[in-house]
Amino acid sequence: MSSVFTKIINGELPGRFVYRDETVVAFLTIEPLRYGHVLVVPVEEVDRWTDISPRAWTQINEVAQNVGRAVIEAFDAPRAGYIIAGFEVPHTHIHVFPSHGLEDYNFANVMKMDETDPEKMDEAAAKIRKILDTDEKGYPH
């Protein structure tokens, strides 16, 4: 059975994409720690990050680093947070988000889907895409 991320990647579920290529996608999470919280996900459905090929892992981290730079700039944050948790969806993903301190890393503080402002979510995705120079589907211009 496909993961929820595979369904988003395949267009079966909606997603606010900020980056996409043949190996990696990046889209906003529906339950962010802060606006601008992005998930960097391999297209290949692999549960544990320790099982990804070294080549794909390098590409995933390169995208995560670029997204991190974009969220720092877009949200005037001193750092970009980077977390690999992986228990909520059995599909490897890296959380990248604007961070102002360690308190931003607490998943007990996520905004639930019904607490987020859809307009602010769209705006966050647009800000990141502008810096990454990608279109609404996440493809580079």
Automatic annotation (TrEMBL):
Does the keyword Lipoprotein belong to this entry? no
Assigned keywords, A-Z: Hydrolase
Q: Name one GO biological process term.
A: nucleotide metabolic process
InterPro entries documented for this protein: Histidine_triad_CS, Histidine_triad_HIT, HIT-like, HIT-like_sf
What's the protein name?
Diadenosine tetraphosphate (Ap4A) hydrolase
Q: Where is this motif: Histidine triad motif?
A: 91-95
> What PROSITE patterns does the entry give?
HIT_1, HIT_2
The positions flagged as active site in the entry are 93 (tele-amp-histidine intermediate)
Q: Name one GO molecular function term.
A: hydrolase activity
Q: Which residue numbers delimit the HIT domain? A: 4-107
